[in-house]
Write a structure and sequence with these properties.
Elements lengths: L5 E4 L4 H9 L5 E2 L14 H16 L6 E12 L2 E3 L5 H11 L3 E13 L4 E12 L4 H9 L21 E5 L2 H5 L3 H16 L1
Parallel strand pairs: 1-2, 1-3
Antiparallel strand pairs: 3-4, 3-5, 5-6, 6-7
Helix pairs in contact: 3-4
C-alpha cells in the first residue's frame, strides 16, 4: 500500500507495531496517555471505537500533516469485559473464567487525518474458543509475566497462550491486537476520500 502521508501510531503495543511493519508500513510511535475508561451505557463495539478515537484525536494536534492511528482491544465473555489484568491474581481469575468458553475479541481503530480533521472508526470482532485449562497451566503462565500486558490475560501469537486456544472464527490478527485486512481496506479508502 502506498501511503502518501506520515503515519503515527498512538500506541506502544509491540504487537500492533509488529503487525503494521509486517505489511510494510513506516510509522512514528506516539503514546496517547488516554485512559481506557469504559462507558457502561455503550456496547463493546462502541466503547473500543470511542477509546480508539480518543487516542488518535489526543495525538493528532501534535502533527501538521499526518494520519494518526488509534486502537483498543478488549475481550468479552457473556457481556463481561476483560481488559489487561490488574495484577497476577486478576490474570488467574480471567483465565479461569475464559477456560472452556467461547469469548469475543473486539478491536476498534480510528484513522484521524491532519490537517483536515477527518476521521473514520471501525471495529473487528473475532470468536475465540479456549479448551479447558488446568490450574497448573494457568498458574505457570501467569508466573511467566506474559499475560500482564494483554487484554484477556493471554497472547495467541508469541507465547504459551497459543495452546489455550482450540478454535477461532474470524480475523486471527484481530486476536493478536490489530485487524490487518480491515485496516488495510479502510486505510486505502480513507486516503482516496482525502484526495477528493
Amino acid at each position: 500500500m502506498i501511503v502518501k502521508k506520515q503515519i503515527v501510531l498512538a500506541s506502544r503495543s509491540p504487537r500492533r507495531q509488529l503487525l503494521l511493519k509486517q505489511i510494510g508500513m513506516n510509522f512514528e510511535i506516539r503514546e496517547s496517555g488516554v485512559p481506557e475508561d469504559f462507558d457502561q451505557s455503550k456496547t463493546p463495539s462502541e466503547n473500543v471505537q470511542m477509546i480508539a478515537f480518543r487516542k488518535a484525536s489526543a495525538v493528532a494536534p501534535e502533527y501538521q500533516n499526518a494520519i494518526v492511528i488509534g486502537a483498543d482491544t478488549i475481550v468479552v465473555l457473556n457481556g463481561k469485559v476483560f481488559g489487561k489484568p490488574e495484577n497476577e491474581r486478576d490474570a488467574v481469575s480471567i483465565l479461569q473464567t475464559l477456560s472452556g468458553q467461547t469469548h469475543q475479541v473486539y478491536t476498534g481503530f480510528t484513522l484521524f487525518d491532519r490537517p483536515s480533521g477527518r476521521s473514520v472508526s471501525e471495529v473487528e470482532i473475532t470468536d475465540v474458543t479456549f479448551r479447558e485449562l488446568s490450574s497448573e497451566e494457568i498458574d505457570g503462565y501467569v508466573r511467566s509475566g506474559s499475560p500482564m500486558d494483554k487484554a484477556g490475560a493471554y497472547g495467541i501469537q508469541d507465547d504459551y497462550g497459543a495452546v489455550f486456544v482450540s478454535r477461532i472464527e474470524g480475523c486471527f490478527y484481530n486476536v493478536v491486537g490489530f485487524p490487518l485486512t480491515k485496516f488495510y481496506l479502510v486505510m486505502k479508502q480513507f486516503q482516496e476520500h482525502l484526495e477528493r
